[in-house]
Automatic annotation (TrEMBL):
<dbReference type="Pfam" id="PF00171">
    <property type="entry name" value="Aldedh"/>
</dbReference>
<comment type="similarity">
    <text>Belongs to the aldehyde dehydrogenase family.</text>
</comment>
<comment type="subunit">
    <text>Homotetramer.</text>
</comment>
<dbReference type="InterPro" id="IPR044638">
    <property type="entry name" value="ALDH7A1-like"/>
</dbReference>
<keyword id="KW-0560">Oxidoreductase</keyword>
<dbReference type="InterPro" id="IPR016163">
    <property type="entry name" value="Ald_DH_C"/>
</dbReference>
<feature type="domain" description="Aldehyde dehydrogenase">
    <location>
        <begin position="32"/>
        <end position="492"/>
    </location>
</feature>
<dbReference type="GO" id="GO:0004029">
    <property type="term" value="F:aldehyde dehydrogenase (NAD+) activity"/>
</dbReference>
<dbReference type="InterPro" id="IPR029510">
    <property type="entry name" value="Ald_DH_CS_GLU"/>
</dbReference>
<dbReference type="InterPro" id="IPR015590">
    <property type="entry name" value="Aldehyde_DH_dom"/>
</dbReference>
<dbReference type="InterPro" id="IPR016161">
    <property type="entry name" value="Ald_DH/histidinol_DH"/>
</dbReference>
<keyword id="KW-0520">NAD</keyword>
<feature type="active site">
    <location>
        <position position="264"/>
    </location>
</feature>
<protein>
    <recommendedName>
        <fullName>aldehyde dehydrogenase (NAD(+))</fullName>
        <ecNumber>1.2.1.3</ecNumber>
    </recommendedName>
</protein>
<dbReference type="InterPro" id="IPR016162">
    <property type="entry name" value="Ald_DH_N"/>
</dbReference>
Length: 511
């Protein structure tokens, strides 16, 4: 392992991970059943044990006892602990951001940005801890008062994907904690070390505050560990981020026991580039959206729907921009594009290119796997662009790689129909300076996605808004706005301070 990475692990207090990993609030065990290889250079960076079922059961019991205490702590005091988490993340931003970049493969800037997002959601959650408002209503009965209040749910299970290995956890955990819940986090098996780093940072904050064991638990494991959470009646809410296939399995398991789910699943995001677009802005938005994080964001731009009158010109500008892309080590800030997460992702990329060709796609920027000493992990690929029809089976599918599809349109109504005509409904955008076009795109007859932007690409989001999407994206909302309500249960209270017992709807009942 590189000396610089070893130093970062020391700064994060996790340099000993190779000798096994086990603390009271972490269900893993010494061992090396789960190995984490960096897609940057193919080096082994972590080897850890998988949590066995009995350790999982003990973990949830510890979490349940912690909840009994935590729900009695006033929400603003809970916010104070999340404030300290935000401060601890500020201190560790560079080391954690670098580890995210090294373990997951995104650029250093994006790794740092991911930690910044964690800090931002902590700040948001601190404010929220004084704003968990319920409504009051006027009762139809005299001398009665009606209001609602929001109570915590209990144990919140968090299942996360590899591509945002730390931010997704913080979106859930920061809100869940201020709402009075405790968390059990099952991170992606592809990025266990960044999860251990986060757990260590939060464990330090909790210990300093004398918080009980089990308020935030880490469950190291694969798909099976995720199924334990989904099937467990003790877990009140399962918040799952990942592929649509995973989300369907989780929804069925949690639905079968009538638990709560929050699903954040795959996207198939498009930008409409109108003849009224500022093409300079549109090129930057499209290229960043398509190749940022090597096309491995849920909000990555996968389709460009371009007006026929600017289509040729825009395609040529894209081809030119792709020619300037530097692909390589994401820790080197000169590079624009890093590796895919692993070789299985590379195979999926190659298979998608083949399928696209077979279905009639024409590549204007040709893809391929990069070879040579700088690409020794075997995970670096060339971002590519194909001209396609929206109806191709491969275009309807989310391939988690930098493959961009170009589609031509004539009228805005047709463009909106093409944009909506995929199973997923996460992020969408229109590039236009025409007010009528922008408003139609945002109207009820416009984009059917959870996120719809004007003159901003599809990729990325601020934490202040509710994040999530419709259809195969799962319907969940996380992060800002009133997404906190998913982590609480609503209770309606009616208080009678009169000396009689009038019934609602004027019903008479005499005994
Ligand atoms: P994945 O579905 O392979 O795995 C995600 C997580 O689910 C992992 O922790 C995995 O162990 C777990 N898991 C897998 N099968 C499970 C099951 N049957 N029951 C319970 N848990 C199970 O996804 P990935 O490859 O890690 O991530 C990429 C996918 O995530 C893409 O589809 C991307 O669009 C999506 N994603 C969505 C969002 C969003 O907010 N909408 C954010 C990030 C990623």
């Amino acid at each position: 392992m590189k000396e610089s990475i070893r130093k970062i692990l020391e700064e994060l207090g996790i340099a000993e991970h190779n000798t096994g990993w086990s603390t009271g609030a972490t269900a893993g065990r010494p061992g090396n059943e789960l190995e984490s290889f960096s897609p940057v250079d193919g080096q082994l960076i972590a080897a850890t044990g998988l949590a066995p079922r009995d350790a999982y059961d003990a973990l949830v019991e510890t979490a349940q006892s912690a909840f009994e205490h935590w729900r009695t702590v006033p929400a603003p005091k809970r916010g104070e602990i999340v404030r300290q988490l935000g401060d601890a993340l500020r201190e560790k931003k560079t080391s954690l951001g670098t580890l995210v970049s090294y373990e997951m493969g995104k650029s250093l800037q994006e790794g740092l940005g991911e930690v910044q997002e964690m800090i931002d959601i902590c700040d948001f959650a601190v404010g929220l801890s004084r704003q968990l408002y319920g409504l009051t209503m006027h009762s139809e009965r005299p001398q009665h008062r009606m209001y609602e209040q929001w109570h915590p749910l209990g144990v919140v299970g968090i299942i996360s994907a590899f591509n945002f290995p730390v931010a997704v956890w913080s979106w859930n955990a920061a809100l869940a904690l201020v709402c009075g819940n405790v968390c059990v986090w099952k991170p992606s098996e592809k990025t266990p070390l960044t999860a251990i780093a986060c757990q260590t940072i939060l464990a330090g904050v909790l210990a300093q505050n004398g918080a009980p064991e089990g308020m935030s638990c880490l469950l190291i494991g694969g798909r099976e560990a995720g199924t334990w959470l989904s099937g467990d009646r003790r877990v009140a809410l399962v918040s799952a981020t990942g592929s649509t296939g995973m989300g369907k399995a989780v929804a069925q398991a949690v639905g079968g026991r009538l638990g709560k789910v929050l699903l954040e699943l795959g996207g198939n995001n498009a930008i409409i580039v109108s003849q009224h677009a500022d093409l300079d802005m549109a090129v930057i938005g499209a290229v960043f959206g398509a190749v940022g994080t090597a096309g491995q964001r849920c909000t990555s731009t996968r389709r460009l729907i371009v007006h026929e009158s600017v289509y040729g010109q825009f395609r040529d500008r894209l081809v030119q921009a792709y020619g300037q892309l530097r692909i390589g080590d994401p820790l080197d800030e000169q590079n624009h594009v890093g590796p895919l997460i692993d070789r299985a992702a590379v195979s999926a990329y190659e298979a998608a290119i083949e399928a696209c060709k077979e279905q009639g796609g024409r590549f204007v920027v040709v893809g391929g796997v990069l070879q040579g000493a700088d690409f020794a992990s075997g995970c670096y690929v060339q971002p590519c662009i194909a001209e396609v029809e929206n109806g191709f089976e491969i275009v309807q599918h989310e391939t988690f790689a930098p493959i961009l599809y170009l589609i031509k349109y004539r009228t805005l109504e047709e463009a909106i129909q093409l944009q909506n005509d995929v199973p997923q409904g996460l992020s969408s955008a229109i590039m236009t300076q025409n007010l009528r076009e922008a408003e139609l795109f945002l109207s009820a007859s416009g984009s059917d996605c959870g996120i719809a932007n004007v003159n901003i690409g599809t990729s990325g989001a601020e934490i202040g808004g509710a994040f999530g999407g419709e259809k195969d994206t799962g319907g969940g909302r996380e992060s800002g706005s009133d997404a906190w309500k998913a982590y609480m249960r609503r209770q309606t209270n009616t208080i009678n301070y009169s000396t009689t017992l009038p019934l609602a709807q004027g019903i008479r009942f005499n005994v």
